[in-house]
Amino acid sequence: xxxxxxEWQVARRRKGASRKLKSVQVSSASIGFQEDxxxxxxxxxxxxxxxxxxxxxxxxxxxEQLLVTASRSLAKLSENSEDHLExxxxxxxxxxxxxxxxxxxSFSSCVSSRYQLAMLLMLLDAGQIPLQxxxxxxxxxxxxxxxILRELGLTVLTENEEGKRxxxxxxxxxxxxxxxxxxxxxxxxxxxxxxxSLVVIIGNSFTSMRERSIEREFKQQYSxxxxxxxxxxxxxxxxxxxxxxxFSDTAIISFPANNLKEIPQSNWTDSPxxxxxxxxxxxxxxxxxxx
Length: 291
Prior knowledge:
By secondary structure, this protein is α/β, with parallel strands linked by helices. 45% of the residues lie in helices and 13% in strands.
């Protein structure tokens, strides 16, 4: 049996695990294993996984949705300014996106994380986003994993931003199966019509988050997601049954300018930073508790 086949037997036995926060405590034995990684072998596995996904029908639909959403978002921006657009040698305008990826998980030991990394690389290629313009971070990355990400050409962040990254140009945020607090923090940091119009998210469906939560607690603990549900446009992304633990409940989320214009100015100005003191199931590694 191939390595991929053996890995998927393990993945199926862990069904449901990837839906939980991937940034969890890692044992010292596991860290030691990661530091002794065979870099060449892992890079080959990542590239093999990428080649496998490219042959899947659902990938074409992901690619189409990314290009359509990015095109619509940037076309709307270009009506007012070309600050985020560049022209090639022939004078044609082409789209410029950057990317931020949080919470990828330990892709050296977790099959789901490795598939999600492969998908990220494919999306960057499809969106013509230079590898160095994609910043990645997870508190549980080992030094060997960080080296591999740099070898791939990605930019590895050194600080735990807790998702609080302000979009100053059109940005794709790739947050696969991350905790709600990470999404909530991201929305808070970009809580203005100008900033949200620059944000595109590939991650968990906001609508599904709300449907699976107790309404009162959801509004209280994750108020920015709660409000964003009615502001955003979600397009569900397909997921084949054999990859249900990897890509389930994923959507591409954008914020149409027309929706943002309908919000009273007071909603933007009264935007306190999220506090999670009373949240007992916080799915995020905060700066003061990172490993």
